[in-house]
Amino acid sequence: MAKRIHPNQTALLMAIRADPENDIPRLVYADWLVEHNEPERAEFIRVECETQRTDGELDAYAVEKA
Fold it and tell me: What's the count of helices (H) and strands (E) in the chain, helices before strands?
């Protein structure tokens, strides 16, 4: 049997899709996942957001040190 998607989850996913460059909807969704007993998925999303946010900074730092 397929798992039903909560209406709030649908709205959050639509917000993420509407603005893919904005991490805020993703982080709100991560909070929602924690509240709905899916902390592993939430942590994955947070790590992905942090990785993307710092990726350019890390590259610039590596170039500076080279």
Answer: 3, 0
**For residue 28, what is the enclosing H or E element?**
helix 24-35
In whole angstroms, what is the distance from residue 35 CA to residue 52 CA? 24
Secondary structure class of 1 (helix, strand, coil): coil
Dist CA 9 CA 45 (whole Å): 14
pTM over 0.85: no
Closest CA to 47 of 29, 27, 19: 27
More confident residue, 2 or 35: 35
How far apart are the C-alpha atoms of 59 and 65, rounded to whole Å? 10
- Among residues 41, 51, 39, 50, the alpha carbon closest in space to that of 13 is found at 41
* Separation CA 55–CA 17 (nearest Å): 22
